[in-house]
Amino acid sequence: MAGNTDNFKRGSIELILLHLLQGGDLHAYRLVQMILKNTGGRFAVLEGSLYPLLYRMETDGYISAREESVRSKAGRSRIRILYHIEPAGIERYRQLVEQYQNLRAAVDEVLRRGIDEIEG
């Protein structure tokens, strides 16, 4: 059962990532923070587990990545990767939203009925 939950969560995170990236380019650490904050702490995604999904999304053409050089407070330069949603990612987002809404409507339809109202 845990595998099914993991697959459902992974699909949900892809939807959330594509949604967040429509607001502008973001790096992985910021995405992790935004997911945690904007899901009320329900989705805790570690940066390390996010990268495989970001790489897959990049390979699929939904997002692109670019390097950005930033200076730390100590004056050291480091590279971070910014992710950008591509037109294919916007289309994928629309598809995922539609799938999510259809699934949610179907589940809600069953759950709103009392057990004695369910047709067999």
Structure description:
Helix 1 packs across helix 4 (87-111). Helices cover 57% and strands 17% of the residues. By secondary structure, the protein is of the alpha+beta class. It is built from 4 helices and 3 strands, in the order αβααββα. It has a single domain (2-111), classed as Winged helix-like DNA-binding domain superfamily/Winged helix DNA-binding domain (Arc Repressor Mutant, subunit A, Orthogonal Bundle). It has helices at 2-21, 28-38, 47-59, 87-111; strands spanning 26-27, 63-71, 77-85. It starts with a helix and ends in a 9-residue tail after the last helix. Strand 2 (63-71) and strand 3 (77-85) form a beta hairpin.
Brief sketch in words of this structure:
Strands 1-3-2 form a 3-stranded antiparallel sheet. The protein has one domain (2-111): Winged helix-like DNA-binding domain superfamily/Winged helix DNA-binding domain (Arc Repressor Mutant, subunit A, Orthogonal Bundle), CATH 1.10.10. It has 120 residues and is of the alpha+beta class.
* Form type: elongated
Task: Give the % helix.
Answer: 55-70%
Which class in CATH terms? Mainly Alpha
Biggest sheet descriptor: 3 strands, antiparallel
